[in-house]
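User: Can you predict the 3D structure for this chain?
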Amino acid sequence: MTSSRLGRVILLNGTSSSGKTSVGRALLPLLPDPWFFVPADAIGAMRSTVHTRVLDDAEIDVMLRRTRLGYHRAVAALASAGNDVIMDYPLSEPWRLADLLATLDGYDVTLVDVRCSPDVLERRERERGDRPVGLARSQTAVYAHGDPDLTVDTTDTSPADCAKAIAAALDSLESPKAFDRLRVPR
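Assistant: Here is the predicted structure, written as structure tokens:
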């Protein structure tokens, strides 16, 4: 039995430590239908960390790109079966957005920019300890698309309140949505 509808996708885009994961988790219980929360970090965590040889920088770049391309297609596969999916993913390289625009063509995608002040980002990076301090500041391309459906800011707003704002706005978003607008040549 297959679904007759394609699943919806909410793409939480933001720099490292902006609060994407916390907002995504807080969003799940607010949505009326079952949704999958599929953060990019979860895909990376599935990859082995022990290798029989050390990869050089070029091999690491190829492996990471392959992983990210696979992530895009895993989300599309879930949505193609009628599942609704929340992505937690920084559009930190132009090719990521270009590939997602192609891979998710025909899907109902809501692009949400998750923002946070640079000082709070750096504080979060220090507190986390699993990311280099300054990573978020270096991700300058994350918001380069300049055309989200929604923007939330976790500087002074809790992930729960950001999630509530997203859930409340989902049914009243302007059409065409950001992904459809971004596909149109300018």
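The first strand starts at residue 8 and ends at 13. The chain has a mean pLDDT of 91.
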